[in-house]
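Entry 14. Ran structure prediction on the chain below.
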Amino acid sequence: RKGYPVYPLTVAQKFHTYYMEFCPKKEVLNIGTSLTIGTDIDFDELRRAVYKACERAECMRVHFTQDKDKTWYQYIVKEYDKEVEFVDFSEVSMEEAAKTMRKWTAVPFKREDSFMNRIVMIKTSDGFGGLYLLVDHMIMDAQSLICFLKDVIELYCNAKYEGVPYPKEMASYIEQVKKDLAYEAGSKAKARD
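Output, structure tokens:
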């Protein structure tokens, strides 16, 4: 698709597309969270860390597409060129900020040929700063969301503070998809199970 290799969906991803069709609220697959810290944040450096983390994490660059038979496929684009937004909540209450982020989480993603995430740098009225992250469950679960945020933090700290090591490489999303597909196709591991 658009010059990129395409891969079938895993069984888990197919299950998500199945129930999503019947669910009146399409945001059912959204996972929204925020991570803030009580220190001054260099938002320019944080933005660079986010883009670098998206470059390192294939799942953040996944797009989905359907063929003429309505079969879903996935592909990874080379560059994360989606805007990393900034919202200053410092003049509103924490409750109002949380309400706004819950509204963001309730907006479903465009399903085809688009990024399945939204990243917003935030500053809150309690003096904290950090990120709001919204992802589609088709590309991430809670564990991979934590790994991505950890990567952003480590990239940021490596750039800002002396002696902080560069983080190790992220696991390959596509390699895991290939393993899942091989398992589903009747590998030795599936036969053992």
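The CA atoms of residues 11 and 184 lie 8 Å apart. Will compare against last week's run tomorrow.
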